[in-house]
Design brief:
A six-stranded mixed beta sheet has the order 10-9-13-14-1-15, with helices on one face. A five-stranded mixed beta sheet has the order 3-2-6-7-8, with helices on both faces. The chain contains 13 helices and 15 strands. The chain is of the alpha/beta class and about 425 residues long. Helix 1 crosses helix 2 (about 55-65) and helix 6 (about 155-180) packs across helix 7 (about 180-195).
């Protein structure tokens, strides 16, 4: 098969950045007017997403609390991730550099929960260790959600719902989403948590399109909802996107839970993992080929069902137990479906190109990315050149070359 020639392209996004992250965290917390005082035990929730500098942000939060004379400890604020076990969730935190040694405080993990209130006729669940503390603090990234659109999506409210509710809460709330909708569930449960649990503060982190820390703000319980809504607007504006549409074949070198909760960010590929709510099909992509699963996913291939073609090396890395726990908890079994699987990258990609219709492969509209988190540089086929000429935010560089495969049929890494 004749392969399309690919141009390396640099894409420009807005690039606000935080310089001194620890100092910014300390200033934000100092101005948050939170109720923590000397001697208080403070449970600091840290989640399971691959957030840039998350260890630095959480570490700075712990140091600020210690400087106040408080007694902070960290707990995993994640629903069913890490295989739905305390040991698995501690392992996830450790991978992100969050350990007792690096943070200088205890880390307490449990899947046990206690009821602290009621919302939408359901009990509201809270991690037992967090419930026993004097105060609770949250640290999370605020960003567009991969399954729905609203004025509150993925962030501190979601952490209060899914993260603090652990596996029991995650199962309950995802089922409720089918009837009430994601935004109503997250908002209702989050507000009840603010009323009934001792939430002292939330630290909201926003990233730019280069996966860099762009903004850090802290809110007390009274200001948390308004603050998160405002940060989501910034996150949506700064988010990285694929610059061109429609696309015949999108080649994704790697997917994984450290890249997106959906494995491949559905805001980037335009394919949601949740079948229960409308989601904008933008960009329009005919076929997606995903080649590998990141090591940081520990075999969790949630979202593989959004691909159309894949490789044997990816499938061999899948640990179906945590994958199914994650997908079934979210009431999205399709996220675990295995696509058409080929022994080599070349076979998978050429098969996708053979399914685009009457367009010759050399004129196909092909985009190649490392993953859905890193879109500052990508490769696009020559068919896109007329459109790129009209775009000031896209700069081609280097010489165009056909997709390069090694002797084993593996795509040469980006």
């Amino acid at each position: 098969m004749t392969r399309p020639r690919m141009h390396r392209v640099r894409q420009t996004f807005p690039r606000p950045r935080v310089g001194d992250i620890p100092a910014t965290v300390a200033r934000a917390l100092a101005g948050a007017d939170m109720p923590v005082k000397s001697g208080d035990a403070v449970a600091v929730g840290a989640g399971s997403r691959g957030i840039a500098n998350i260890d630095v942000v959480v570490g700075a939060t712990v140091r600020f609390l210690r400087d106040l004379g408080a007694r902070p400890f960290i707990f995993p604020a994640m629903g069913s991730h890490g295989g739905g076990t305390p040991e698995g969730q501690l392992s996830v935190l450790a991978h992100y550099g969050i350990t007792e040694a690096t943070m200088g405080c205890p880390i307490r993990a449990t899947m046990e929960v206690v009821q602290v209130g009621e919302a939408l006729g359901m009990p509201v669940w809270l991690d037992r260790h967090a419930a026993e503390a004097d105060w609770i603090g949250l640290v999370n990234r605020v960003k567009p959600h991969t399954d729905f659109k609203g004025s509150i999506e993925s962030g501190l409210f979601k952490m209060m719902t899914i993260g603090l509710g652990k596996h029991r809460g995650a199962i309950q709330y995802h089922r409720a989403n089918i009837h009430h909708g994601y935004e109503q569930v997250i908002t209702s449960v989050g507000r009840e948590m603010l009323r009934k649990a001792r939430i002292a503060f939330g630290v909201g982190v926003v990233e730019n399109g280069y996966d860099e820390t762009a903004r850090i703000e802290a809110f007390n319980a009274a200001r948390l909802e308004e603050g998160e809504r405002r940060l989501l607007k910034d996150a949506r504006e700064w988010m990285a996107r694929l610059p061109l549409s429609p696309i015949d074949v999108l080649i994704v070198e790697e997917m994984g839970k450290n890249i997106s909760g959906a494995g491949m960010d559905s805001n980037v590929i335009g394919r949601p993992t949740n079948p229960h709510e409308p989601f904008p099909a933008d960009p329009r992509i005919l076929w997606i080929v995903v080649l590998d699963l990141s090591e940081e996913s520990y075999g969790n291939a949630t979202g593989i069902g959004n691909a159309d073609f894949t490789t044997r090396r990816l499938v061999d890395k899948i640990d179906m137990k945590p994958t199914l726990i994650n997908c079934i908890t979210a009431c999205a079994p399709g996220s675990a479906k295995i696509p058409a699987t080929y022994e080599t990258d070349r076979e998978a990609i050429e098969t996708a190109l053979s399914c685009i219709g009457l367009t010759p492969a050399e004129r196909a509209r092909v985009v190649r990315i490392k993953n859905t988190l890193m879109l500052g540089e990508l490769e696009v086929s020559e068919a896109f050149l007329p459109e790129m000429a009209q775009r000031a935010d896209l700069t081609p560089f280097g010489e165009p070359v056909p997709l390069p495969f090694d002797a084993a049929g593996r795509l040469v890494p980006f």
